[in-house]
TrEMBL record:
GO terms for cellular component: cytosol; mitochondrion; nucleus. Its EC number is 2.7.4.9. This is dTMP kinase. It comes from Cucumis melo (Muskmelon). GO terms for molecular function: ATP binding; dTMP kinase activity; nucleoside diphosphate kinase activity. The chain holds residues 47 to 258 of 259 of the full protein.
Length: 212
């Protein structure tokens, strides 16, 4: 951990539809890296603990109504308010595993019909992930897993639109992971990929910024 002066932590993002297994896999991944002696933290967006996060949370649980553009900017602000801590951690050698990030921000808002470029704009300048793990699953299969809850967006027709917007965002640092397989198989695949990424960052791969 933190062996050379330019050694930094990796920024790893898990993305995918609701119920694709992001939360389970991101916490297992964190435990795995911790077990190997790495400095690592698991974060999730939206971060519902901040005041912006509380506005988002009440919107998601249908307790409040907000204009689509407004809520998009709140989600983005919720990332910006964590930006400096995120960069400090990474530069200090801590790897961050993020359960959702800007890709969810753009994919969900575009699925509502907002313009792609408009949605991407407020994310410009945020730290870019070194690796995006996209857990791929059909909305039907996701819904079978304990069923969707009562939060906004948890509907099959909407999730199908989200898939289409994710496809537009796919980049070279993405890895598509078949999330229909048993949990342990996925876990193993993620471990290998992430370890590789962590090593590259330790060896000085530079941190870039969205949208690169
Ligand atoms: P969780 O169920 O994972 O807490 O997600 N969302 C998320 C957006 O619309 N924009 C964003 O920027 C982010 C991070 C995805 C809550 C829901 O919020 C959506 C599902």
């Amino acid at each position: 951990r933190g062996s050379s002066s330019n050694s930094r932590g990796a920024l790893v993002v898990l993305e995918g539809l609701d119920r694709c297994g992001k939360t389970t896999q991101s916490s297992r991944l964190t435990q795995y890296l911790e077990g190997l002696g790495h400095s690592v933290e698991l974060w999730r967006f939206p971060d519902r603990t901040t005041s912006v996060g509380q506005m988002i949370s009440s919107y998601l649980s249908n307790e409040s109504q907000l204009d689509d553009h407004t809520v998009h900017l709140l989600f983005s602000a919720n990332r910006w308010e964590k930006r400096s801590l995120m960069e400090t951690k990474l530069k200090g050698g801590t790897t961050l595993i993020l359960d959702r990030y800007s890709y969810s921000g753009v994919a969900f808002s575009c699925a509502k019909g907002l313009d792609l470029e408009w949605c991407k704009a407020p994310e410009v300048g945020l730290p870019a992930p070194d690796l995006v793990l996209y857990l791929e699953i059909s909305p039907e299969m996701a819904a079978e897993r304990g069923g969707y809850g009562s939060e906004r967006y948890e509907r099959i027709d909407f999730q199908n639109k989200v898939i289409k917007s994710y496809q537009v965002l796919l980049g070279s640092n993405w890895q598509i992971v078949d999330a229909c397989r048993p949990m342990e198989v996925i876990e193993k695949e993620l471990q290998e990929t992430v370890l590789d990424c962590v090593k590259k960052c330790q060896n000085g791969a530079p941190l870039s910024h969205l949208w690169s």
